[in-house]
UniProtKB/TrEMBL annotation:
Keywords: Signal. It comes from the Eukaryota. Residues 1-17 form the signal peptide. SUPFAM superfamilies: Integrin alpha N-terminal domain (SSF69318). Gene3D superfamilies: Integrin alpha, N-terminal. PANTHER family: PROPROTEIN CONVERTASE P (PTHR44103:SF1). Pfam families: FG-GAP_3. It comes from Monosiga brevicollis. This is VCBS repeat-containing protein.
């Protein structure tokens, strides 16, 4: 057995001689050239106590590896809307950062807030100010000129689906009506439903009990209303996604009075099947969306329902057969919105929700194996009505924008990652 031969090539140093009970510090190189520094005192390199620094860094790494949540810090964007019901984020002025858009029902406004970069927002810039209730807003390039236009549902009085054309730098045209006499236009969505390369418009029409679409000719000229279904009662939300994996977008609906989540198969070109029910047990269904929640490559369906305070999902086998109800929460009191977003950047889609009776913006971390654990984003002052995830400060993770109805507040919640300190 070879005896480990220590080759002392450095004279023992004794700089700490004044501290009498400290073991003599030493520096030595071993046979392999590894330098050994032995001391019970401090080791300073360029004025930095390296042992101490290392211990702190280790502590932090340990904390980060154990902490699986992400932290948010909330900032008010605007209180200039009255009864905001819908928020969205998109780059409206083409500067590469996402701006915030809101629709408010009590003052009938569609407005935006310019992101000055890294999450500082301008005061409100009004796009449309009418007397009517604006219930829903999204952004999409409807005329195919490369910028984000704005689309809205104007409910009850005017009952219109309308858009506002962006000139490229965030200057908007007046209201361009796509359809009027849509009784209770409640939600809008943009999607290429006839597979011709442009974005068509989908609406949920509350008082008409209809799900409708409007075919875009490519430059923002829309067809008459094309009814997909009248088999819904008090339909709150419509969404489009390819649920059967055949390459075209199918349509989903959430209807409040018949507690129903249903879909309509696109047979190609925007020819839709009759209603296929996913569930009739979402009491007061308010929202539906689709996302691959279990990572099997198929788009699952996600719902929010107000009366049973529920966020739930329905697993898709890939051909549009949905199995069971997978509960995410039954304590999202007055659930309004549920949609998917990877909040912790682990590659699995998490879920965010807004619930108006407990004023909460929540996220549910995807734990794998079909499990989700609830995490708080913010308790907004009152009546959390809408939520949308987008990277607003350009740091690569998803932040959250929310609208709370009762205190008329648009706020954003910065994702600080796994650090509580920002
Ligand atoms: C060294 O001296 C300090 C102060 O006199 C004392 O607190 C400490 O316990 C001593 N350490 C050892 C290893 O004897
Ligand atoms: C440094 O400490 C280690 C571990 O106690 C010991 O094996 C080694 O011989 C020491 N080196 C010197 C140069 O004192
Ligand atoms: C030096 O390297 C050899 C080969 O990797 C290894 O067996 C030996 O233990 C090393 N010596 C010391 C003091 O680490
Ligand atoms: C767009 O409209 C805004 C506001 O009216 C105006 O300031 C801007 O110059 C316009 N931009 C272009 C490219 O026309
Ligand atoms: C769409 O319709 C409008 C009005 O009829 C027309 O001016 C425009 O050229 C059409 N666009 C396309 C891409 O067909
Ligand atoms: C989906 O359901 C339909 C109708 O029940 C059935 O014919 C079909 O085989 C199912 N598909 C799969 C992949 O199970
Ligand atoms: Ca399809």
């Amino acid at each position: 057995m070879p005896i480990a031969a220590w080759v002392l090539c450095a004279i023992v140093v004794s700089v700490l001689a004044s501290i009498d009970n400290v073991t003599k510090p030493s520096i030595a190189a071993d046979e392999n050239g590894t330098l050994h520094i032995n001391t019970t005192g401090r080791v300073m390199i360029n004025g930095i106590d390296v042992v101490n620094a290392l211990a702190q860094a280790t502590q932090q790494l340990l904390y980060l590896s154990q902490s699986s949540t992400v932290f948010f810090s909330s900032t008010v964007v605007s209180k200039s809307t009255f009864g905001p019901r819908s928020v969205y984020a998109a780059d409206l002025d083409g500067d590469g950062v996402k701006d915030i858009i809101s629709a408010s029902q009590d003052d009938g406004k569609v407005a935006w807030y310019r992101n000055e970069g890294s999450g500082t927002f301008s005061s409100q810039i009004v796009i449309f100010d009418g007397d009517n209730l604006v219930r829903s807003v999204v952004a999409a390039d409807l005329d195919g000129d490369g910028d984000m236009d704005v689309l809205s549902a104007i409910g009850y009085d005017a009952d219109e689906v309308a858009w506002y054309q962006n000139n490229g730098t965030g200057g908007f045209s007046g209201k361009r009506v796509i359809a009027s006499n849509i009784k209770g236009a409640h939600s809008v969505f943009a999607a290429d439903l006839d597979n011709d390369g442009d974005l068509d418009v989908l609406s949920a029409d509350l008082h008409d009990n209809k799900v409708s679409w409007y075919r875009n000719n490519g430059s923002g000229q829309f067809s008459q209303r094309l009814v997909i279904s009248d088999e819904t009662e008090f339909v709150h939300c419509a969404y489009a996604a390819d649920l059967d994996g055949d390459g075209d977008l199918d349509v989903l609906s959430a209807s409040f009075d018949d507690d129903k989540i249903a879909w309509y198969r696109n047979n190609g070109g925007g020819d839709f099947s009759s209603q296929i029910v996913i569930t009739t047990r979402t009491d007061g269904a308010t929202w539906v969306s689709a996302a691959d929640l279990n990572g099997d490559g198929h788009l699952d369906v996600l719902s929010a329902s107000q009366n049973d305070n529920k966020v739930a999902w329905y697993r898709n086998d890939g051909s549009g057969n949905f199995s069971g109800t997978w509960i995410i929460s039954t304590t999202a009191y007055g659930a309004r919105v549920a949609c998917a977003a990877d909040m912790d950047g682990d590659g699995q889609l998490d879920i965010i929700s807004a619930s108006s009776n407990d004023d909460k913006i929540m996220w549910y971390r995807n734990e794998g194996k079909n499990g989700f654990s609830p995490q708080m984003i913010a308790r907004v002052a009152s009546g959390a009505w809408s939520v949308y995830a987008a990277d607003l400060d350009g740091d690569g993770d998803l932040d959250v924008v929310s609208a709370s109805d009762s205190n008329s507040e648009i706020a954003w919640h910065r994702n600080n990652g796994r650090s509580p300190f920002g």
